[in-house]
Structure formats: structure tokens, C-alpha cells
Amino acid sequence: MSISRRQVLLIGGLGVLGAGGAMLPTGSVEAKSASRISSQEMPRPFQADFVQAPILQPRTTGTDPQDGSPVNYYTLTEMAAMTNILPRLRTPILGYNGIFPGPTISLDQGTKAVLRIRNKLPAVHALDGHALSTSTHLHGSASRPQYDGYASDITNPGFYKDYHYPNFQPARTLWYHDHGVHFTALNAYSGLAAQYHMHDPMERELLPQGRFDVALTVSDAMFAADGSLGYDDNTHSGLWGDVILVNGKPWPVMKVQKRVYRFRVLNCSISRSLRPALSTADPVVVVGTDGGLVPVAQTVADWRHGGAERYEVLIDFRKYKTGQRIELRNLSNKNNVDYDFTSKIMAFDVTDEPVDTSDPTWNRIPTTLTTSEAMSLRTGQSVATRKFRVMRNDSTGMWTINDDSWQDVIASAYKKVCAEPALNSVEIWEIENKSGGWFHPVHIHLVDFQILSRNGKASFAYERGPKDVVYVGEGETVRLLMKFTPHKGLYMMHCHNLPHEDHDMMVQFRVGLKENDVDVDDPMTAARAVWDDGPE
């Protein structure tokens, strides 16, 4: 790839790196830096302490009168704020409750949630002046369409929307992020992203909990000279920053006991893919994928990790010496742009803190976990096979799926669909990457799926669990098996390289309905945002 370089423009406190030319699919690029901050202000690896996002407490609890289920009621406020990412300079962000990443939501399977999202953002984004309307997607939740973060179902500044989440699925790592139409990339990059954890009895018994159940939200960023965020999506091809952040801190160091830890690794970079590996060359054990626990734990030396994918891994620190440092490194993948320190993610320093050996998970590396509906599906159940191509239109530069885009959906008054699967039907979806030297993490809303094959061969060991994002690499064709349950209505499929999604690599499918059927869950009309006249 070639990388464009222009002078930083400072607009209202946020930095923007102008896109001087398109990224070209000619292989990976290595460069010294992308940021414009001085060398004295540039962070260096392993200088910051590791932190975790706070757990969001419900403002109240109740009971669903229809089925008697417990309900947690939460409130989050989207707001502009300043944060400490760099050693001395302050960085403006957009954050849930003013922090990045936003607060983690943690609850048990069967406890429903009503999440009020208050849009208290400025009227327009300081970087490019786009209206700061938002749409919140709980990624990994089988939500009804009007609560799924449908891109064009926006909440404008000064309004709020209550999102209802059923939380009936097995334990998993979800995350919530902005999904506002055509500006998802910039809004999420500016800070609107956070983790959401759902627990169940099986997962609690088998895997570490509490302080040993660690959320790692990994992203990348570039910075303008004043410490504000820089932005260059290279003509909507992708943004690759030169600073790797974990939970909003550059290359942090975490102190660990000599025991087994569970890490929930979310790649929330808007474009960069990762290939994490330990500096010791020791393997990690994959126990969870996007949709929850894997049937059989997988021991791997490294794994390819696209945007929006979640992998739950166990790392066993028992054999390391007190004071030893183990780095979590990034081996990278084709068609990233790599800089001086993007080969590093974070580090672990081993301590002699006493270990509570009464906790049975302190030394447990399970081999067999549990199956799931997605992983129990068989190809003989499929009633249809559908084929999709992800590509770039040479004449328009638009990213598309089967030549369709979200602009086409808007032009059809939200009627145009790429598929109409029946409710509770099982289908095979085949996705072929015909876009040249680009990889695409493709997300299908509503469903968990099983990866049947990749270029006719078995899926990678680490992805043999329920998934909702599939990394479709350069020249690859993947086959996915999924069941369309439990809701009828409109759902999206898109690339999670977010500049691709915004321009305009997103389509929709309709479950259990035909175009002219009455849709009580129409995401554009069924649950509109409400004027927010509550206290600030």
C-alpha cells in the first residue's frame, strides 16, 4: 500500500490528516510514524499503567410484567470530553459518560436490560462538521430490529432513546458502539465504544471471574501536534494509527499474579487487523469467540484478529519468574500499515502477590467447554445457499456487497434487501473477497454463525466457535452456516473496516417477512428517539 501524507489541519480542537491519495492494494507498508506530535510528546511502549473501564451500575432494577424476568435499567450519556492518553497533552474525545472506552456493562443471562442513550453531544463533529446524530448497536445481541442500532435510525443531539436488550443468549463478550449512518468510523474512532459482558452458570464455573476476567479493548490512533486525534482514512480505504491503545492507554503494563487469567480481547480499531502473540512464544488457549464459549478449547501460538472480532483467551502465568516481563506483541497481517511500535500491544509484569488457590480457576485450563446452537448446526439443515462478493467499484470508488450499497437501501425507502430468509430457517452464506488486496471483517447482525470453510479448507483452529464477524482475507472465500432466529425484521450485513461501511459497504436482509408485509418492528418507526428534557 502507499500511504498519503499531508499537513495536519486543526479544526475545533480535533486534528485531521488530509487524505492525499487512495490507499493502493500493493502489500503492507512500514513507516516511522503517522502522528504529528513532537518526539517529546510521543508515547513510548510500556510507560503507562494498565487500567480497566469502570462497571456501569444500573440506575434502578425491576421486573418485566410480561414474563417476570429481572430488568436492569441503565443510563449512558454521549458527550464531548477531554482525556489523558498522551503523557502530557490532553485529547478531546466523544465518549459514553465522557470516557474511552465507555463503562463496561456486566450482567447475567436472563436479566434483561433497558439502556437509555442520551445524546448530549455537540450539534456537529469538530473535525468535519457532520451532524453528531448516533445509533447505538449492541454488537453480538439478538435484539429486535428497532433496538439493533439500525444505521439510519438515528438519535439527534438533545434526544434520547431507550434500547431493550433480551440477554437470553449464552455467556459472551459483546460490545456497544455507535452505528450512525455514514459516520460510524469517525464517531467510533472518536471514542464511542465499550464492552458488554453476559455471564451464565457454565461460564462462571469454568473460567476466571472478577479481577482475573480482564477486558482488553485494543485500538489504534494517530495524533495532531496539539494532542488531539488525527484522522486520515485514505479516501475511505482505512485508517492505521501509529499508537496502539489498550483500554485507552498506549501500550500499558499490567501486573499479574502467577495464575491463569482470562482476557476478553476486542479489536475496536476502525481498520487495523491484529495478529497477537506472546513474546515468550508460549501459546494461549482460546476458550471463547464472538458468540461465546467454544466447544473445545484451542491452543494457538497467534491468531488473526479483525476489527470487531472478540476472542477470549487464557494465559497461564504460573511458570514465569517474579519480575519477568511478557509482551503481548502484534505480528500484523497483509495490507495493514505498520509503524515503529505497532508491533507491540501491551506487557505483563509477573509479581509475587499471593495467589488464592481456593479459587478453582487459578490453575484450570479447560479442554471441553460447551456447545451452542450455532456450532450444533449441520449443513444438511440448510434450505438455501446464498453467494455474496465484497468488492470496490472501480469507477465510483464505492465499497459494495454484490454491487449493492447502503445508498441503494436509502434510495429504496429501506425496502431493498439482499436476502429474505424465513424465520428459524438455516442457510449457508458464501462470501467471496473480490476486492483485490484488501481484507474485510464482515459482520452479520442478529445471528451467530459457524465458519464451515475457508477457500475449501477447514476454518482456523481459533475461530471454531460461534461467530458474528468473519475475517475475509485477500482472495479468500468463506462459507458460513447460520440460523435466522429469534426475530423477524430488517437486519444489516456490512464490512467492519468502518470507512468501508460508511462508503458504502452495507446491505440489509429481511427475516420472516416480505416487502409489503406489516412490520411492527420497523427500525425506522417502531421506537423513535424522544426529546430529552431531563437534567444535564
Task: Report on this structure.
The chain is mainly beta. It folds into 3 domains: 28-47 and 208-362, Cupredoxins -  blue copper proteins (Immunoglobulin-like, Sandwich); 60-206, Immunoglobulin-like (Sandwich); 373-511, Cupredoxins -  blue copper proteins (Immunoglobulin-like), CATH 2.60.40.420. The protein has 5 helices and 35 strands. It has helices at residues 184-189, 201-206, 373-376, 406-411, 498-502; strands at residues 8-11, 14-17, 29-30, 60-63, 70-83, 91-96, 105-108, 112-119, 136-139, 159-165, 172-178, 193-199, 213-223, 229-230, 243-246, 249-250, 253-256, 260-267, 276-278, 284-289, 292-300, 310-316, 325-330, 337-338, 344-350, 384-392, 399-401, 426-433, 440-444, 449-454, 469-472, 477-483, 489-495, 506-511, 530-531. The strands form 8 sheets. Strands 13, 14, 15, 16, 18, 20, 21 and 22 form an 8-stranded mixed sheet that branches. Strands 4, 5, 6, 8, 10 and 35 form a 6-stranded mixed sheet that branches. Strands 27-26-28-32-30 form a 5-stranded mixed sheet, with no helix packed on it. A hairpin with a 2-residue loop joins strand 15 (243-246) and strand 16 (249-250). The longest helix is centred in the middle third of the chain and has 6 residues, at 184-189. Residues 1-27 have low confidence and may be disordered.
